[in-house]
Amino acid sequence: MSGFDQKKIEIAVRMILEAIGEDPDREGLLDTPARVGRMYSEVFSGLHQDPREQLKTIFNEDHNEVVLVKDITFYSMCEHHLVPFYGHAHVAYIPQGARITGLSKLARLVESTARRPQLQERLTSTIANALVDRLDPAGVAVMIEAEHMCMAMRGVNKPGTKTLTTAVRGILATDTNKRKEVFDLMHNS
Ligand SMILES: Nc1nc2c(ncn2[C@@H]2O[C@H](COP(=O)(O)OP(=O)(O)OP(=O)(O)O)[C@@H](O)[C@H]2O)c(=O)[nH]1
Ligand SMILES: [Zn+2]
């Protein structure tokens, strides 16, 4: 797998402009290939990151109840059409063994995992798995609500639909009452 190649994107975008019947040399489009390259380096910046690296900061604190960071805004790119899907992630875990992480690290985890060609299901389960790997918590629950531009502006043309995905691990996979408590917190407070 190679790294990020700005020059190659510029060539490709120029070719796409030609292929749709545009004139890539008209004034308004002259800088577009370079601009798109810079944009892709931003929106795909998570591609060569291991999301688990975001959870390096671990504190020793004996808290064995739910920690939930909700309404984490994210933008990702649908890997089928390379158009955005975006929405909110709610990330919860129940620590054990006095291992907690910084709250911002949960948002960084979402960010790193979202910034690559992605599927909503994989985004959800990758976040859950990273928490399990790094914190060995008693339980994890991740919920993602998103709108897919590929369903809104083309194809089936259904703007306003929301896709909701969840990933639960540990006690939050096995204990239905605990899971309901966490899902209620995600949605109702
Ligand atoms: N499961 C899943 N599907 C997705 C996601 N993002 C986009 N899709 C779907 O990927 C599918 C690709 O279907 P194809 O039939 O190969 O492509 P298409 O002809 O462009 O499909 P339409 O979108 O139905 O026009 C579509 O049903 C999209 O809605 C995602 O995150 N998860
Ligand atoms: Zn799509």
Automatic annotation (TrEMBL):
> What sequence ranges are listed for the domain GTP cyclohydrolase I?
10-186
Q: Which Pfam families match?
A: GTP_cyclohydroI
Top-rank taxon: Bacteria
Per the record, GO CC terms? cytoplasm
Q: Name one GO biological process term.
A: one-carbon metabolic process
> InterPro entries in the record, alphabetically?
GTP-CH-I_C/QueF, GTP-CH-I_N, GTP_CycHdrlase_I, GTP_CycHdrlase_I_CS, GTP_CycHdrlase_I_dom
Q: Which residues bind Zn(2+)?
A: C78, H81, C150
Identify the enzyme class. hydrolase
What keywords appear on the UniProt entry? GTP-binding, Hydrolase, Metal-binding, Nucleotide-binding, One-carbon metabolism, Zinc
Write out the catalysed reaction: GTP + H2O = 7,8-dihydroneopterin 3'-triphosphate + formate + H(+)
Q: Which EC numbers does the record give?
A: 3.5.4.16
Protein family: Belongs to the GTP cyclohydrolase I family.
Identification of the protein by name: GTP cyclohydrolase 1
Q: Which organism is it from?
A: Sulfoacidibacillus ferrooxidans
Q: Which gene encodes it?
A: folE
